[in-house]
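Limitations

Structures in this collection are predictions, not experimental determinations, and the ligand pose is part of the prediction. Treat each record accordingly. The example that follows, with 9D3 as the small molecule, is included so readers can see exactly what is and is not provided: the inputs are given verbatim, and the output is the predicted complex.
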Amino acid sequence: MIFDVLTIFPEFFRGPFEHGVVARARETGLLDIRIHDLRSWTSDRHRTVDDRPFGGGEGMVLKPEPVFSAVESIWPERAADRKVVLLSPQGRLFDQAMARRFASLGGILLLCGRYEGVDERVAERLADEEVSIGDYVLSGGELAAAVVVDAVARLLPGVLGNENSALNESFSAVDNGEEASLLDWPQYTRPAEFRGWKVPEVLVSGHHEQIRRWRRQAAFEKMKRLRPDLSRTGLRPVIENEKEPEPVPSGQAGRNSHE
Ligand code: 9D3
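Predicted complex:
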């Protein structure tokens, strides 16, 4: 998969794409990230990318010409499996379902806004989608672009150690594919007692069925407490009919295996 990123701060991305999963995905050739400096598509002496808003008001707006020129030269033609995505505070909220959909594409061109916004003709006539990463105000689209690349990269087949790892965690696809659910349970590691705080007895008991029940219940309680907005997602602490995980070949985690 190819990510093209259009930005006025190309140097911003030296850090986030050179570590961890994203760096490894690039090294193995599963992911290609190309950073483009928007100012390369200006022709005036000052390499102007912004201007004052029509109708008045504070701040500056990204001009359409350099953005259109850049996109049309980076992608001379459009393909069905490639999307131009404008990152903006007004966009549709990025979530795990969107990350999965993006991971199924061949390429994404991310447009990072700055200043007080981007000329609306970019959103209306150039971008296929307008995406926000959350309801808070950032100073630009660069951090949002890094978030999108990270969330998508780890879903690409072969990027994580095994093909199931990305599905096998808290924001995982439910069977009907409609929603993501929060299933992560509280984790503990050694020591079994730290500053007098003990790890729940059941986890050191070795009773695997009881451990499964405890984890499911604890995950549900924590979700209700911290994410009441997610309690509608179909997650239930159903423990009576819970099936044993399928036996899997060694070295491959099964859907419910977190050992
Ligand atoms: C909502 C504030 N806008 C009112 C005039 C101005 C404005 C502030 C900050 C316009 C753009 C920005 C820069 N933010 C992004 O480009 C951005 C963003 C965000 O701020 N929050 C969540 N997701 C995103 S994606 C891109």
